[in-house]
Design a protein that fits this description.
By secondary structure, the protein is mainly alpha-helical. It has 3 helices and 3 strands; from the N terminus they run H-H-H-E-E-E. The radius of gyration is 21 Å and the shape is elongated. The termini are far apart.
């Protein structure tokens, strides 16, 4: 009987510990996603300084304009790379890759007004559920 009580107590404690660990992982992913959005904003500001506009809409377009040395080095205005991506931050190589969030989903980069107000663009992660919902993380 005592052995069953000890097993029950250990099971309850393990459940509490695992639950807290999952919440900590979720908070860490949210923090990482916010940090990446801030880094992308800084890189986009540097790009804007050189070109007077922001990259065209689309995640892959943004990656190419910010980091693809081979594609941009012949342009005299391009003083990049404006951002260095780790392999874990991209879904593929720089030439065809997209930036992914902490849950492995592509960021949404929307730029309806390249010359508009600052920032005229939106960088958004669809969050843990990968759906357009209240848990999205955005620079706006």
């Amino acid at each position: 009987m005592e052995m069953l009580a000890v097993i029950a107590i250990i099971s309850v404690l393990m459940g509490i510990i695992l639950s807290g660990g999952n919440q900590a992982k979720q908070r860490a992913r949210i923090y990482k996603t916010r940090a990446m959005i801030a880094s992308l904003e800084t890189a986009l500001a540097l790009y804007h300084t050189d070109f007077g506009a922001y990259p065209a809409a689309g995640n892959q377009s943004m990656v190419n304009d910010l980091a693809d040395v081979a594609a941009n080095s012949s342009n005299a205005d391009w003083h990049g790379p404006y951002m260095s991506f780790k392999a874990a931050d991209l879904n593929g190589p720089i030439t065809t890759g997209t930036v992914i969030d902490a849950w492995g989903n592509d960021y949404v980069y929307n730029n309806p007004h390249p010359l508009g107000a600052i920032p005229p663009y939106e960088i958004r992660s669809l969050g843990p559920d990968a759906l357009d919902a209240a848990d999205d993380i955005s620079n706006l």
